[in-house]
Amino acid sequence: MKTKDRIVYAALELFNDNGERSITTNHIAAHIDISPGNLYYHFRNKQEIVREIFKLYSAELIERFTPLQGQYESLTLLKHYLDSIFTLMWRYRFFYANLPDILQRDDQLHAEYIAVQDKLQANLINIIRAFVEMDLLDIAEQDMQKTATTLHIVASSWLAYRSAMSPKTRITESVIHQGVLQIISIVKPTATATGYEQLQLLEEGVRAMHA
């Protein structure tokens, strides 16, 4: 792996485990046993590393939430999107947990974030529309934007919410599973009979993971 990539993945690991604010470029350099000067050859400051991590996150986010083409079983599709929510929240948990602060410190990153989220929102509406066409959800066309926004709000703010509700909250896989359950609870009232049964199966599977 190239040194630049090692720096990025080391930073991601340290940010997730300790919080982005408490980690310096010196911590990152020491973690992969390189000199601070070597790190600065690739990145001028920590903010540039955060932006590079955001590029990874954005690419994975759009890839995972691009409506899938071809014939898939409805349960497979539902599981794919729920698994994607969990994976992204866990893999980039430092970003979700402290999103407003990170964005407010970097106008360039904030602008990039908004552009990516606008694209995500359009994809979410298309995904919802596909589930309506598969007779899993019963949502009117005029309500799809509102539903997509609600799901987006919960997914993007869940970790910050949990952290705010307790001074001792530690982000674990269980905390993220609870966020996935919250998302399922939002979708359930809009489900058809078939969709409700499938969401119930997925909900039981998530609960079993942290029982």
From TrEMBL:
DNA-binding region(s) in UniProt: 24-43
Ordered alphabetically, the record's keywords are: DNA-binding
* Record-linked InterPro entries: Homeodomain-like_sf (IPR009057), HTH-type_Tx_Regulator (IPR050624), HTH_TetR (IPR001647), TetR (IPR025722)
The domain of life for this entry's organism is Bacteria
Enumerate the Pfam families for this protein.
TetR, TetR_N
- HTH tetR-type domain location is 1-61
PANTHER family for this protein:
ACREF/ENVCD OPERON REPRESSOR-RELATED (PTHR43479), TRANSCRIPTIONAL REGULATORY PROTEIN (PTHR43479:SF12)
What name appears for this protein in its UniProt entry?
TetR/AcrR family transcriptional regulator
